[in-house]
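Hey L., structure's done. Input below.
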Amino acid sequence: MVGGRQARLPAADDHDLDLGPDLRCVHTSVNHRAAAALPGAASPLRFSAAGCSLERVDCLFCSIIDGETPAHRVFDDGAVVAFLDIRPLFPGHLLAVPRRHVETLTDLPEPDVGPYYTRVRLLTAAVERAMGADGSFVAANNRVSQSVPHFHTHIVPRRRKDGLRGFFWPRTKYADDAEAAAVAERVRAAVSAEGGGR
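Output:
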C-alpha cells in the first residue's frame, strides 16, 4: 500500500523502485534486482516487477526505531539501533537492528554488511564490559526462530557455568522498568567508552 492504497505495478523489465523504508514488495518472483521510481516514496528497494504489488510493513522493530514503541535504547548512530531485549537471556542482552527494514541477513545490502557488523562488534565489547561478562554469545536467526521479521543480532553477555546449554534456554524478565533502565544505562555508558554514538 502506498498512501493507504495498494500499488500494483505492471509486468516490466527489472527496475528499481524508490520506496519508503516501511514498504515491501509482495510478489511471486524471488528475483529482487535493478531502475524506475514510484511517486511519493523515499528509500530504494530493488526487485523484478513482474506483477508486483506493494504493502506497508507492520514491523515492531521499525516502530521502535521510529520512536513509536518504547524500548531501552543503548545505541543509535543513524545506521544501526540497539536496545535491550524485553525477554533477555541475561541482563544486558541486546538486539542490534539496521534502521533500514530488511528481513534477513541475506536481504541486507552488501555495502551495509561491514558497517553493520562493525557496530555489532562495538556493542559486543560494550555489553561484555558493562555486565562484567566472561564472554558473549552473538547470533542472528534468518526466518527459522526469527520472532520479528526485521533482521537483528542478539548480543548476550555470558559467564562460565551460566546454565546455557546449546540453543535451548529459558528466557527471563527484568524485575521492573527501573531495573531495565539501569541495565540500559550501564550498556549506554560502555558503548560511549568504546567510542560509540548516542
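Helices lie at 60-65, 110-131, 177-193. Strands lie at 7-8, 15-19, 23-26, 43-47, 53-56, 73-76, 80-84, 94-98, 135-139, 153-158.

-- N.
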